[in-house]
Amino acid sequence: MPWATLLVALAAVLSRAGPGWEDGLVLERAVASAQAWRFWTGHLVHVSSGHLGWNIAVFGAAGGWLEMLAPRAVRLYLLWAPPVIGAAIFAVDQEIGRYAGLSGIAAGLVVALALTQLTRREESRPLWAAVLGLVAVKILYETMSGSAVLTEGFRPVPTAHIAGGIAGCILFGFIARRRRSLADLPPVG
Amino acid sequence: MLRDSPRRSERSSSVVDFLYPGQTEPVVTPGVPVLRLPLRVGVAFVPAAASRGVLPSGGISEQQKSLLLGRVANEFKGRQFIQSIEVIPSTYLRPGGGFGNLDQLRGLLSVDIVVLVSFDQVQFTQENKLSLAYWTVVGAYLFKGNRNDTHTLLEAVVYDIPSRRLLFRAPGVSEVRDTSTMVEVRERLRAASLSGFGLATDDLIRNLTSELTAFQEKVKNAAADSPVARIERRPGYSGGGAAGSWFAGGVLALLGLALFWRRRAA
């Protein structure tokens, strides 16, 4: 049972339940050092239902799948990745004052899941390579067009997906190290 | 009592008269506007010229103008690339004030983009055959012997004040047709005038929304060597990580296929 993924998804949905809750939870540069919890809660906040819906769909599918394959590693990832990704965004993108969204963490889970499945013989390698390719295309597209678009909603932050992708590679490293053979991972599906 | 020619009244304001007073050919400044996100926007009616015609002037009061502009502002307030939209009272604009006046607004109200709304409203009233009953005096109270038409055009132009460049424009039109008794003409024309402005504002909001979308596409798709506008971000701007529909759809489809493939292989 991928309970950690479900818990985070539920928390993200609940963060939109109350008016003004976002202001207390969003990752904000000015107060982040004094209110460190925002490094975790900021990823749960979303600016619109569409933003929440698509992020939860990717996070739930990839996170749920990977948590069933490597529960301990994914649960640890959900603890360490949010502050690491948040800190990376603030360090690289000096203009960003506020950050919100689960997709950085979700990108990491997608990358880790694809890398894990690519190393297993019984899985379709072209399909999982395509998943990695899709993540690369998304990052490239955002990096090239993000600064030129009056974005409906908010400014996309490619750094979040790049940092998420790197965090996903580290997560894959943990999973690979803990298992002597990735082929020993339990089958899902 | 039956007249052949309609009586007519016209009220209007002109963006060109406001921005380029006394100039026959408006001067267009070359250069690329720099839009600093999130945008600070002001929206105002340009000062109106005196009304012309034989009908009593209906027109639109400052309060009504403010309400109409408030509706336009509310429609665009939710957009995250807009920091604020100020409704600017007409008293802040001088007839023929030009860009000098806009520069003053920029300093006073901290707006970089201004939406200038001009209007042209023409009202006609013409007696129909029922107006013959007006000869009976009582008929002027009972029979709707007047046909009243109100045509309204609103035109919004969106200017970047620092670069003096027109970003985009959008029209809003309405037509109100009505009949009335002779004694009601004045009252009905006044009501039709207001109703015409309201309907034209609805149309203007729709057109502004689609023109804004088209402008966003133009900015996005413009060639690097001839940009429509340069986009910069103010420090502290909000951002986020979004999977987005195409990426999320793609990932879900691929995961679904992988699951299907896994089950078939098993």
Q: Secondary structure elements and their pairing?
A:
The complex is a heterodimer of chains A (189) and B (266).
Chain A: H1 3-14, H2 21-25, E1 27-28, H3 29-32, H4 38-41, H5 49-69, H6 71-92, E2 96-100, H7 103-118, H8 125-145, E3 155-156, H9 158-178
Antiparallel strand pairs in A: 1-2
Helix pairs in contact in A: 1-5, 5-6, 5-7, 6-9, 7-8, 7-9, 8-9
Chain B: E1 7-12, H1 15-19, E2 34-37, E3 39-45, E4 52-53, H2 62-77, E5 82-87, H3 98-109, E6 113-127, H4 139-142, E7 146-160, E8 165-180, H5 185-221, E9 230-233, E10 237-240, H6 245-265
Parallel strand pairs in B: 2-9, 3-5, 3-6
Antiparallel strand pairs in B: 1-4, 1-6, 6-7, 7-8
Summarize the structure.
The complex is a heterodimer of chains A (189) and B (266). With 189 residues, chain A is mostly helical. Helix content of chain A is 67%, strand content 5%.
CATH fold field value of chain A: Rhomboid-like fold
**How many helix segments of chain B?**
6
Helix and strand composition category of chain A: mainly alpha
Q: So what's the overall shape of chain B?
A: extended
- Total DSSP E strands of chain B: 10
What number of structural domains do the residues of chain B give? 1
Helix percent of chain B reads 25-40%
Task: Estimate what percentage of residues of chain B fall within beta strands.
Answer: 25-35%
The helicity of chain A comes to 55-70%
Poorly predicted runs of 5 or more residues of chain A: none
Give the key terms.
heterodimer; A: about 190 residues; mainly alpha; Rhomboid-like fold; 3 strands; B: about 270 residues; alpha/beta; 7-stranded mixed β-sheet; two-stranded parallel sheet; 6 helices
